[in-house]
Design a protein that fits this description.
Helix content is 15%, strand content 28%. With 471 residues, the protein is of the alpha+beta class. Strands 1, 2, 3, 5, 6 and 7 form a 6-stranded mixed sheet that branches. Strands 19-16-21-20-23 form a 5-stranded mixed sheet, sandwiched between helices.
């Protein structure tokens, strides 16, 4: 993110030429305002037309209406798109829309029609003076006018209501990427508290605007390319969200939505831990900001019914009633990974873990809508970046345990991976803070009790044990 300079100005660029019904709407645009609240106006060179804001018609090469506004600003005044940034709250939508009738011009074969001026508001953020180079065939001069002298009544009233800000706000953009299954692509951030925003949490891909970004769409496309080597054909503005940074300041984030059906494991991730698909109904399982969860759910609700996301982990089906007295057991799958030297892999659980905080435990996870070995393979990849093939897995122990009387029983199969690829990585730092291979005969003191029992039984070749049950 690059903060704007305190030397700012308000500019608006709008379309001034008539728009035919076939041509569609055309934009206007604006860099923006210093504390003096002044507004740039251009005057025509060879016509008596009154001064107007920079602007013009869209061209096929323009990526968006805001992009049209920025191109026209550059062409007419020489001010480059990189010298301005969208006004907070108007990163993806026009600041003002003016609709007026245009009389027919029979001599040119133009019927009467309506003209739409879409005005985009920008802030001049460069710290150095911007040189103005006029487009002489269309523009005869430029002047900065106080906001209260803006000719359009509706535009003037809106501008006067804007708060006078001495410090510019940052500009950010994020990508809300979804697939045909109704899942959303989320990015697990590195766990570097104090160094990055929302460390160890799932979030959207994106970042802050850089000087070379002409628009926030350029920002989000650049971030996708830099962070994941990802290029999406279509990105549509979805709105502006607001978040608080580490200093407690409110930061606007322009959200762009796009569809993609690729495999995130094939992307080249340069920042963070991993990328993965999640359905909105599964977000409660993640360490994720409430604002991000709400954003995903709102977007999901806006999709047509055939595309509306459904959790793969909660299929719609009627479960058969259990026989009377039956108690459902939780299935937790465990990986027993032993090196040729006999040492066994354990992970140190995060201090904030609900279960066994700051305690050593084997790599493990709960079965979802999947069989136990599929769960093992998935958890090994998600938690530690290990790749295991089904043919290389064998069952070595089962522990049936409860933590204390009255708790739900748990069945814990332990599987050995005879062969695997990769070295343990911290893929989920919000759950595990360290991986280490230990000698089974010299395990640390703070090991999950039933894990210690299971490792001992596996060393003795015993297939079953029970812990926590009353004698």
């Amino acid at each position: 993110m690059r903060p704007s300079s305190q030397r700012q100005g308000i500019r608006d660029t709008s379309t001034r030429e008539p728009i035919s019904p076939e041509a569609g709407t055309r934009p206007c645009r604006a860099p923006c305002r210093p504390p003096t609240r002044r507004f740039p106006r251009l005057s025509g060179q060879n016509s008596p037309n009154p001064p107007a804001c920079p602007g013009g018609h869209a061209e096929p090469s323009d990526e968006s209406l805001a992009g049209t506004a920025l191109r026209e600003l550059h062409e007419e005044t020489g001010i480059p798109p990189q010298a301005v940034t969208p006004w907070p709250g108007y990163e993806t939508v026009p600041f003002d829309i003016d609709i007026h009738d245009i009389d027919a011009r029979p001599g040119k074969g133009e019927p009467g029609h309506q003209h739409f001026d879409l005005r985009f508001l920008f802030r001049l953020h460069t710290a150095s003076k911007v040189e103005v180079t006029l487009q002489e065939e269309e523009v005869g001069g430029i002047e900065w006018r106080p906001v209260d002298k803006v000719a359009s009544t509706s535009l003037r009233e809106k501008l006067l209501k804007l708060p006078l800000q001495g410090e510019p706000e940052t500009a950010n953009a994020s990508a809300l990427i979804y697939n045909d299954h109704g899942e959303y692509l989320l990015h697990l951030r590195d766990y570097f508290p104090g160094e990055i925003w929302e460390p160890g949490m799932w979030s959207l891909l994106g970042g802050g605007r850089e000087p070379q970004d002409a628009t926030l769409e350029h920002t989000v496309r650049r971030e996708l390319a830099e962070e994941a080597d990802l290029d999406l054909a279509d990105l549509t503005p979805f709105g502006t969200e607001y978040a608080s940074d580490d200093a407690g300041r409110t930061v606007p984030i322009a959200i762009y939505a796009g569809r993609w059906n690729g495999d995130p494991r094939e992307l080249t991730l340069t920042e963070g831990v991993m990328l993965a698909w999640f359905a909105p109904g599964d977000l409660h399982r993640l360490r994720i900001a409430d604002t991000t969860s709400d954003l995903v759910r709102r977007h999901a609700a806006s999709l047509p019914a055939p595309t509306a996301p459904q959790s793969r982990l909660a299929p719609k089906e009627e479960h058969r009633a259990c026989p009377h007295g039956t108690v459902l057991n939780v299935i937790g799958v465990h990986l027993y990974l032993e090196r040729p030297d006999g040492t066994v892999l354990l992970g140190l659980r995060h201090p904030d873990s609900a279960f066994a905080p700051s305690t050593w435990h084997v790599l493990a996870g709960h079965c979802e809508q999947e069989n136990a070995i599929s769960c093992l393979i998935r958890e090994a990849r998600e938690e530690a970046g290990l790749h295991i093939e089904r043919r290389d897995v064998e069952l070595v122990h089962v522990v049936h345990h409860i933590d204390k009387a009255g708790d739900r029983p748990r069945m814990g199969p332990f599987f050995r991976a005879r062969v695997w690829s990769g070295e343990p990585e911290l893929r989920e730092p919000d759950k595990c803070t360290q991986w280490r291979f230990w000698d089974p005969a010299a395990l640390p003191d703070n090991v999950v009790p039933y894990t210690r029992v299971a490792i001992g039984k596996i060393q003795n070749g015993e297939l079953y044990s029970e812990t926590g049950w009353p004698a």
